[in-house]
Amino acid sequence: MSADTTDEPTPVAELGYEQARDELVEVVRLLELGGLDLDSSLNLWERGEALARRCEEHLEGARARIEATLNADSADGDISDDDIDPDA
Fold it and tell me: What is the secondary structure of 14-82 as a DSSP string?
């Protein structure tokens, strides 16, 4: 879970979106395979929950940046709601 030589996973707060997403995919894969004892499964599940929250934080941040840019452009008269395709 970490590029380090230790077995300690990288703290979730330090992961970028892609790193957190990729690790979350691996956690889900391991849990779906089964065969882990209860403690290991719970530890993986907790890590997965933290990774999912981290991904959501990154996505919320990206959404806020996009909305801020659109609002700034709209205030400058560069873009209007008619210019945005809601189905895109």
Answer: G--HHHHHHHHHHHHHHHHH----HHHHHHHHHHHHHHHHHHHHHHHHHHHHHHHHHHHHHHTTS--GG
Around 31, how many Cα atoms within 13 Å sit in the side-chain half-sphere? 17
In the chain, where the domains are located: 12-74
The pLDDT tens digits of the residues spanning 6-49 come to 678 999 999 999 999 999 999 999 999 999 999 999 999 999 99
Measured between alpha carbons, how far is 3 from 15 in angstroms, rounded to an integer? Answer: 12
Is-contact 79 73, C-beta < 8 A? yes
Closest C-alpha to 15, from 7, 4, 23, 27: 23
Quote the tokens at residue 29.
């894969």
Q: What is the pLDDT of residue 35?
A: 96
**Is the pTM for the entire model greater than 0.85?**
no
